[in-house]
């Protein structure tokens, strides 16, 4: 009988709970810079850790989980910018006699 490789994970790949000593390394900061991540890394890391501690999440690679969180956070920040309403118009600057808008309605 041939020996088959074990399908179980080795101890190095075992999923663990959120580490208490998770740090943003220089490599992670460089990774974020290469991808033009503009969000506040410290604040998002705090949100990331709080979320996963509250959910009792387990990952085999917390740095990969962090990178995924940062990619999503950057995408959400961009979407939020697009959804922002335009700033309010100063009513003193409006021409109340302008009716040119009626041409946009086909009137």
H/E element order: EHHEH
Residue runs with pLDDT of under 50 for 5 or more positions: none
Strand content: under 5%
How many DSSP E strands? 2
User: Could you give the distance between the termini?
Assistant: 87 Å
Biggest sheet strand line-up: 1-2
Radius of gyration: 25 Å
- Which range best describes the helical content: under 10%, 10-25%, 25-40%, 40-55%, 55-70% or over 70%? 40-55%
The mean pLDDT is 84
Largest sheet: 2 strands, antiparallel
Structural class call reads: mainly alpha
How would you sum up the global shape?
elongated
Alpha plus pi helix count: 3
Feature tags:
4% strand, 43% helix, two-stranded antiparallel sheet, elongated, 107 residues, single chain, 3 helices
Structural commentary:
The structure is a single chain. The protein has 107 residues and is mostly helical. It has three helices and two strands. It has helices at 26-34, 41-55, 62-83, and strands spanning 16-17, 58-59. It has a two-stranded antiparallel ribbon with strand order 1-2. The longest helix has 22 residues, at 62-83. The radius of gyration is 25 Å and the shape is elongated.
């Amino acid at each position: 009988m041939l020996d088959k490789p074990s399908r179980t994970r080795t101890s190095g790949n075992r999923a663990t709970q959120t580490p208490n000593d998770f740090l943003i390394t220089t490599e992670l900061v460089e990774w974020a810079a290469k991808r033009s991540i503009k969000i506040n890394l410290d604040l998002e890391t705090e949100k990331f850790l709080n979320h996963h501690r509250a959910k009792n999440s387990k990952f085999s690679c917390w740095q990969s989980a962090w990178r995924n969180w940062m990619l999503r956070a950057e995408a959400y920040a961009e979407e939020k910018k697009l959804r922002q309403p335009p700033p309010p118009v100063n009513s003193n600057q409006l021409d109340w006699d302008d009716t040119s808008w009626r041409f946009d309605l086909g009137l």
